[in-house]
Write a structure and sequence with these properties.
The structure holds 2 protein chains of 2 kinds. In chain A, strand 7, helix 7 and strand 8 form a beta-alpha-beta unit. Chain A has a single domain, classed as Rossmann fold. By secondary structure, chain A is of the alpha/beta class. Chain B is mainly β. Helices cover 11% and strands 57% of the residues of chain B. In chain B, strands 1, 2, 5, 6, 8, 10, 13, 15, 17, 19 and 21 form an 11-stranded mixed sheet that branches. In chain B, strands 3, 4, 7, 9, 11, 12, 14, 16, 18 and 20 form a 10-stranded mixed sheet that branches. In chain B, helix 2 crosses helix 3. Chain B is globular and about 55 Å long. Classes of the chains: A alpha/beta, B mainly beta.
């Protein structure tokens, strides 16, 4: 489905963040990328969506080389992307954004379904501006909703979707990811540190220091991850991760 | 009383642009101004429109307790070389709740300048509620300038509310917009202004609002887009002389070589005057464009949607 070959990326004029990533995201599966902060997870997600250009390597979508395609072209090929830090728009409403994501107007029922999946009530939010009046959690949910509203998506990438989402809505979000995978046969790629998201993964990929450190099913990777976490605790109980 | 049949075809087109084709000629009060003359006028049971005797223009008298009516007073300039000056006074009776649709369209296909200067005064009675919609637009292929210079004065009596929604989106080469007003006790003045300029157009906006009535309020929102080599200036003065609240928000987006100057001013003449100003000028945030591109829009489409939302929303 999506294949990354030897992806390398450096901050312009600076540090190398990704160092030869090889990865395959299978069709219809939920892949979770996890790993320590600064390991390159978000950079990789941005490269997949076309927000950053790799300094080396190739990206294939269903066998087609999309390395040189820009953001818009990749979106039209079926790559959806939810930002880790969502963007605010003065003037654009939730309805506007969902319409743009969907490529046209939606029925009120459909708005309800999409916003309900992220724990928002359509009545309260559909005509609100996506501006500074929304809290971090609200804007995060709307960001996720814009990806759920898209059609003809082959791969949806969510960068830390749990950030800012309260516990009550989080269960709904987990269900939304499951439903998205099962009903649409979409591939999902989720960047996350959240154990409950790791639990629903078909495959977990651990990225650290710009490399794939390990990958496998949750049964294979989770015990190792948890053991690592325990081993890396400093005497005061502070977690210390290393590659 | 004149008939609407007197309107020329350009006026009809301009009216569609100004009033979105919503004028109800059967039931509403209206006055259609065309090239300095009257192309149609009708009063209603509760709204009386009469010509002024001292200056060109009309007086609009709205009876107390009038509810749910709309009065239309658009002005159209349909050819080159017209210099139109009009004085319109609105007297809104107590407890009325009405909508006024105004605005001006200039069609200039020639080489000479065409202009419209509308001088409006609003006297809003106690506890009345007025929604005022004003749209300015310029069209035509001529080299002659299209100028619209509105002057608006507002006097709000106790507990009244005036919501002004003014828009100028395209085609006006030069505009100087002056609005001033006084706000009585517990009255509210809410102004939303949306302006987009392109080419070498210029727009100058000047607001001056004085709140003398206790617990009065003023909310002034200006959103503007300056494209190409156009230039806009925004000046506002909000004076609070008693316990009151005042808020002004001036946001501008720059595209190309567009320039904007904003100079808001607040004066608190009383310890209980709570006045706030917010202002932001800059280009479209790159991340906004990136976000919309991840939804499948091109960079140009994204920019267009962001501007459209910014101005309309």
């Amino acid at each position: 489905m999506l294949k990354l070959e030897n992806i390398t990326w450096s901050v312009p004029g600076g540090e190398q963040i990704l160092n030869g990533i090889d990865l395959e995201i299978p069709e219809g599966k939920l892949t979770v990328i996890t790993g320590p902060n600064g390991g390159g997870k978000t950079s990789l997600a941005k490269i997949i969506a076309g927000l950053e250009t790799p300094s080396a390597g190739k990206i294939y979508l269903d066998g087609e080389d999309i390395t040189d395609l820009d953001i818009t072209e990749r979106a039209l090929k079926g790559i959806g992307y939810a930002f880790q830090q969502p963007v605010r728009f003065k003037g654009l409403t939730v309805r506007n954004l969902l319409e743009l994501a969907h490529g046209g107007k939606l029925s009120e029922d459909k708005y309800c379904t999409i916003l309900g999946r992220v724990g928002l009530c359509t009545k309260d939010y559909i005509d609100r501006e996506v501006n500074a009046s929304l809290s971090g959690g609200e804007i995060k949910r709307i960001e996720i909703a814009t990806v759920l509203a898209r059609t003809n998506t082959k791969l949806s990438v969510f960068d830390e979707p749990e950030a800012g989402i309260d516990l009550w809505s989080f269960s709904g979000l987990i269900e939304a990811f499951k439903e998205l995978k099962e009903k649409t046969n979409n591939s999902l790629l989720i960047i996350s540190h959240q154990e409950r998201i790791l639990e629903i993964a078909d495959e977990i990929v651990v990225i650290a220091n710009g490399k794939v450190r390990t990958r496998g099913t949750k049964e294979e990777v989770l015990p190792e991850l948890l053991a690592d976490e325990k081993a890396m605790q400093c005497p005061k109980g502070k977690k210390v991760y290393t590659a | 009383m004149s008939s609407v049949a007197n309107m020329n075809s350009i006026t009809k087109e301009l009216l569609n642009l100004i009033a979105d084709g919503e004028i109800d000629f059967e039931n509403s009060a209206y006055n259609i101004r065309e090239d300095g003359g009257c192309a149609g006028r009708q009063s209603s049971k509760n709204i009386s429109i009469v010509p002024k005797t001292d200056n060109p223009g009309i007086e609009i008298h709205i009876k107390p307790n009038t509810k749910g009516e709309t009065v239309y007073i658009p002005a159209c300039v349909t050819h080159s070389g017209v210099e139109d000056l009009v004085y319109n006074d609105f007297f809104v009776g107590e407890n009325a709740d009405i909508v006024i649709v105004a605005g001006c369209g200039i069609h200039n296909d020639g080489h000479s300048e065409s202009s419209h200067n509308g001088i409006h005064r609003f006297f809003v009675g106690k506890n009345a509620h007025v929604v005022y919609k004003e749209k300015h637009i310029g069209v035509g292929e001529g080299e002659g300038q299209r100028k619209i210079d509105p002057v608006t004065y507002v006097a709000l009596d106790e507990d009244s509310v005036l919501e002004m929604d003014t828009t100028q989106i395209s085609g006006v080469d030069s505009t100087v917009r002056k609005t001033s007003g006084t706000v009585g006790a517990r009255a509210k003045l809410l102004i939303t202004e949306r302006i987009m300029t392109d080419g070498n157009e210029t727009a100058y906006t000047d607001f001056s609002v004085t709140m003398d009535g206790e617990d009065s309020a003023c909310d002034l929102i200006s959103r503007s887009v300056a494209k190409d080599n156009s230039h806009q200036e925004f000046r506002s003065v909000i004076k609070g002389n008693t316990r009151c609240t005042g808020h002004s928000e001036c946001d501008a987006i720059l595209v190309g070589n567009g320039t904007v100057s904003a100079a808001p001013e607040l004066f608190a003449g009383n310890i209980d005057a709570a006045l706030i100003h917010e202002a932001a000028i800059g280009k479209i945030a790159g991340e906004q464009i990136l976000k919309l591109r991840t939804l499948g829009l091109t960079e140009e489409e994204a920019e267009e949607k962001i501007i459209e939302g910014f101005l309309v929303g």
